[in-house]
Amino acid sequence: MKLIILDHYSQASEWAAKYIRNRIIQFNPGPDKYFTLGLPTGSTPLGCYKKLIEYYKNGDLSFKYVKTFNMDEYVGLPRDHPESYHSFMWNNFFKHIDIHPENTHILDGNAADLQAECDAFEEKIKAAGGIELFVGGIGPDGHIAFNEPGSSLVSRTRVKTLAMDTILANARFFDGDLAKVPTMALTVGVGTVMDAREVMILITGAHKAFALYKAIEEGVNHMWTVSAFQQHPCTVFVCDEDATLELKVKTVKYFKGLMLVHNKLVDPLYSIKEKETEKSQSSKKPYSD
Amino acid sequence: MRGGQGAVRAPVLQFTNCRILRGRALLWEDLWVRGGRILDPEKLFFEERRVADEQRDCGGCILAPGFIDVQINGGFGVDFSQATEGVGSGVALVARRILSHGVTSFCPTLVTSPPEVYHKVLPQIPVKSGGPHGAGVLGVHLEGPFISREKRGAHPEAHLRSFEANAFHDVLDTYGSLDNVRIVTLAPELGRSHEVIQALTARGICVSLGHSVADLQAAEEAVQSGATFITHLFNAMLPFHHRDPGIVGLLTSDRLPRGRHIFYGMIADGMHTNPAALRIAHRAHPQGTQTLSGSIAPMDVCVRHFLQATAGCSVESALEAASLHPAQLLGLEKRKGTLDFGADAGQGPTQGGPGQPEDAGVLGVPGQTSWCSMTPSMSGPPTSQASWCGRRRRPGSDRGPWLERTPSPSWTLSGLGRRGAGLRGASGSPAPGGQP
Known about the structure:
Chain A: Keywords: Carbohydrate metabolism, Cytoplasm, Hydrolase, Isomerase, Phosphoprotein. The complex is a heterodimer. Chain A is of the alpha/beta class. Chain A is built from nine helices and ten strands. Chain A has a single domain, classed as 3-Layer(aba) Sandwich (Rossmann fold).
């Protein structure tokens, strides 16, 4: 794995956004070659989405030939509910960029046959040629998407009942009322994400530190489903200092030492405005055009 | 869905780089329009899987709902109270010209007139949807003749009436048909006013209090009978008195029926009301504030003046006073006076007023009808022909302050027909009917 450690949330978000930008541009997508991107929701990726929107508005990045597949959606929540993941993606990402609605895919939590909806989602991913880069987050209980502790590490897209940890964590979006939080969700499986050619996990904040420790310093364990990515050939964990609080000093020092190498993934920073390499600022300075 | 399949296939317009008035706040949001209605873009994205057919950059301007003027007596040389055959075309002319001042819906107002005039004029002013041809007519506002003698203002004394004898029948006899009527202003202290108010309210007509010497109790009883509006607060009524606030006291009355909302219009042209009075009223009852255009000041000027005068009142409040509140008064807030999804829109704003100070820029105005650009500049009147709207002035009254404050020479007021109460612009020709 690559463990990318930045000082603050904003820098971690920016690094992740730059990485996604470079990957899309270097892929050189076109009408017969779409870049397939898996996307998360929640508060962690918000900063990353803001930067990606900024890149689009500056004309450095386009989502015209990008297909997106979201990880999950609540069951039984109306699509236009302000806390549904459809609303989240629309308000925080889709409405600000040039992606075509036909190229976005989010599970429908109000489908008549939920399992059929999940199976169809897997088919759509297959039809799109698989996921190039799956971006995800981690729950305080170490889950990826809604693959709660105890989920099979080879699972596929299906219906899951949410664990109490997750319901507690999500209550803040529902006026703090536990009764209002949906109890079930449709989610991609651990196996579904493992099939992606590359995986990037965003982990920020001290409350995620223990989950990160369990995910990368302990063994592969279905109680901490993110640990499955220890067996993926191409995983990037992007975190801030606070998220590393439970890691060994040795681990942190090792990966911080590798930042010189890892920063080459985002520097030079490519732009669709210029085809040749663009000399850009080092990753320490804030992005500016 | 309106229009069925046709509406779905209609082109989708997306207005970008703008601030829109929605949910009481100005937000940096795009506005989407299709088939004359404001569209929910999230629904379009996820259900129809469509993008906009056309994008228009608004240059950072504000998009506000079209203004609704519930009291406008004429303008551009037209006087609605004149009983001519051409009233219809006069209304159409005013409807067309007020678009450029941001007004997309209005209530042509008739002052106290003899019954023959009402019988002749009212059928010629039907309710009409707006469009690129002009603002929509929401219905006529009948200001008088059932008003107070002492507070008649410029209304002709000879034609004042009462309904003491036969209450609602007197009303019907006077006006003829009430089909095209939307608002009636009357003085509640007149005998049997409660029956009349109840009868009018039952017919869906908004009853307004004005030109009255009513005390607070009479006013409260009128509201209990169904009145919901106050015509040009402060003007043509008893002044606020600390032991009996009169009609003005309705703003803070605790005797109003539960759930009833009282609205009040104020002529915010800087002349009919002192800005301090505007502020007092607005602070006492911000939810009810409505802007009326006054005499020679068009609506957009009044909105700006109101914003300036009530410094501390937000742009959002000023815009709502001219759009949302009148819509709420007339029960139209689902379709007019807002930019909520499903509200009437039109074809979209035309570009206008580039590079203007922010609140003077495009108040590019969707609303009931077509959109229009606001005339720019806060420092002067619109460059169009002066519009006359709002209250009449009593002929022969002291016009000193008016003349002093007459705006720039480009304003020429045409006369008001038979009353001849025109004003001379600095370089304009005298209006018919003579000058003081």
